[in-house]
Amino acid sequence: MTASTPASPFPSIADRFAAVRGHVVQAAVEAGRDPASIVLTAVSKTQGEAALQAALDAGQRVFGENRVQEAYAHWVDRRAAFPDLELRLIGPLQTNKATEAVALFDVIETLDREKLAAALAAAMKKTGRRPQVLIQVNTGAEPQKAGVLPDQADGLIASARDAYGLTVEGLMCIPPADAPPEPHFALLAEIAARNGLRVLSMGMSGDYQAAIRLGATHVRVGSALFGERRTP
Ligand SMILES: *Cc1c(COP(=O)(O)O)cnc(C)c1O
Fold first, then answer.
1. Which ligand 1 atom sits closest to the C-alpha of 225?
2. Domain chopping of the chain, boundaries
3. Residue of 23, 69, 95, 169 with fewest CB within 10 Å of its CB?
4. Origin, by domain of life (predicted)?
5. Do 173 and 189 touch, CB atoms closer than 8 A?
6. Is the pTM of this model over 0.70?
């Protein structure tokens, strides 16, 4: 028998994908949920070419980006080679970038105001593309954070659908960094349930298992898959 290779102290991206996928399945099973009902969104912001390629090699196809420009740089040339890519915008969107966002992304997770709903509707008309839309809810009512306030979410959901004709599939949140996330996940699930929305994008590297227990359909994981980001 030959000695086995010692485990590297620096796990590869392939190792990290395998580990996170395992944890997603485990959290789903523990919650009595079908693991196949949970989508792992790999957050590829700030990553270099080698990391993107390693993720694709690991079979990953669903990616989240928080800036429109960077998402173009990362993905526009890869679309032809990977027709099953799914690109999700998870960062704040300015109305003057709505057309570029609609032209690239399959899902826009960060609708949080009427003015942006109007800009997205106009961009969809112009481009002929109809990405799905999630509404970002500022569950912690943090002044510096994007997202509609929880008590205004029902109104924005209704107007996005009825006044602007958007396909609102669900909700997204980023809980406060310094508090337990569970009450925020539960609040998001409650708002979704009373509005008949199916998709819940919640949970990041530090708390995706908790989010799955509380009903997440999409978890957005960056550093647990790629290692710590070089830029803040
Ligand atoms: C960066 C980012 C993530 C991923 O964060 P990690 O802690 O690295 O997993 C998830 N969601 C949003 C909106 C982000 O901007």
1. 9
2. 13-226
3. 69
4. Bacteria
5. no
6. yes
